Input
Amino acid sequence: MKDLKGKLLSIVGKDLAEIEVALTDNLNPYLEIVSDIAKHILFAGGKRLRPLLMVLSARICGYKGGYDKIFSTIFEYLHAATLLHDDVVDGAKLRRGKPVANSIWKNSTVVLTGDFLLARGLSIAAATKKPSIIKIVAEITENMSQGEIEQLLRKGDINITEEEYRKIIWRKTAVLFQGACRISARLANTSKREENAVSSYGYNLGMAFQMIDDLLDYTLDTKALGKGVGVDLKEGKVTLPVIHALKEADLKDRLRMEAIIKNKKFSIPKFKLLIELLKEYGGISYAEQCAKDHIKQAKESLLVFKPSETRNILEYIADYTLLRKS
Amino acid sequence: MKDLKGKLLSIVGKDLAEIEVALTDNLNPYLEIVSDIAKHILFAGGKRLRPLLMVLSARICGYKGGYDKIFSTIFEYLHAATLLHDDVVDGAKLRRGKPVANSIWKNSTVVLTGDFLLARGLSIAAATKKPSIIKIVAEITENMSQGEIEQLLRKGDINITEEEYRKIIWRKTAVLFQGACRISARLANTSKREENAVSSYGYNLGMAFQMIDDLLDYTLDTKALGKGVGVDLKEGKVTLPVIHALKEADLKDRLRMEAIIKNKKFSIPKFKLLIELLKEYGGISYAEQCAKDHIKQAKESLLVFKPSETRNILEYIADYTLLRKS
Output
């Protein structure tokens, strides 16, 4: 695991360094406070996964235009915008172990900086001069905002189905991964076959990424996420391990699980009991298997491309997504 | 005044009706709650000035493409998005006499619906398939968010200069008017000369619109705005009448005015005294004159076009902007 991460970082180090520079260079606000707030969220230890995926997808599709790093900022700016808006509305105090922006600046200024980042992402998309690319970027934002809203609406709803869960995480997370990859293919003017291949890679990686993220709520035993274990559940987020276990459980255990979930101030022993029940009914292993299946599909999508270092890196990223613990 | 409004509405009635239909038809969310919130703000008695300007500018530039109403929704969606975000962050209870969206729905859902509307505006812009148009729309949003932030930052700052005030209202308001007009010229593929003419019209109209809006805080004697008199000042918004009067006043009166402005819980007699001082030092008449000058320039810009009913309507709108009392 550690080896994989180290290996990955050494290979993509130059790309990541260039992405960091592009994130600063293309922000371009005229107000210092916008720059401060945007940088607070942008340079808070994010993994740059979304821009990196875009850069690597562009490379595997043969893009030679030299603007990949600039265009890759779109996906980090959109992501940062949603984080700023999330933090304002959900009342959390920390993000990645740092105080949230709205604990330092006013809510109003933070919301408006989020709007600026959304607009900035779209301005940079417009600079591609390709309407089909711009359309994808705008639609990503439409989907993300609605995915977030649907998740809010379904908070605490134990009747959510696996299919509904999958749609929500697609809109909320995978759409951005998928879009980053698809756009890179469009920039490269590659074949539809290659475009669909990287798009499928991004989609499956994004789905697995969110499934693993949701699993961490039950499998982490540290505060490595910058948030406590069981936090999603306390917020009422009913995710795949729970959905599956509730479906599989007998009536008695289903009621026991529901009682814990509905009482948002559950104790640690109750939460441990829930985890035992999730394990007993295969909720944890099922969600892990679903994530694995998506990673398998992500890697298979890449077989359209001939073997290369870039293909290897994309495969490593897929493997790493599955193994990540933070 | 009433005659002018009636005349205007009778001439543009068909356009306005088509804009109403387009605003519903192009919203296109998949979540009902997004539709409900968006419609709450979109159909709350807005004047549709921004889409109407776009439609009329397109017409005077000879646009025949038939998509003017669809593209005009961009400007109402962006405007509505900023209103939703404003209401969440500024804590007002009413907007146009109706409860604000975030008093009915959760802040989080309202912020995200604002994001959806921003994205929707940009998606529709992408449908023009003209990158230069899309770029203008994205830049409008960058400017609006930063204009709002700058206004927030300068709250209560009595040292704001007229030049700074003008830049803020340009970003916050006039950029959208100007953009709506400029884009219509681009859609029509008209000459640069005509494009600059409608753009100048939009810019000047937007500047006058905001100056008049700011003046209403001091000149209204009813609650026709859906907000009380002196509300902007209580929020710390230092606008042109005050900026000018502070500059012109002798030291004693300047200090009297500053004392009233700084005490945000000023009494009605104190506010009346302030208005007297604003009048004495020409703050009200100066701001009125500035608005008039912009309207004069707006109308002069139109002289590039030969006389037509559309030119007449744009002139009426300019005159109406100056006379509006709500």
Q: What stands out?
A: The domain at 2-209+302-323 of chain A is CATH 1.10.600.10 (Farnesyl Diphosphate Synthase). The longest helix of chain A spans residues 192-219. Confidence is low (pLDDT under 50) at residues 222-226 of chain A. Chain A touches chain B through 48 residues (CB under 8 Å).
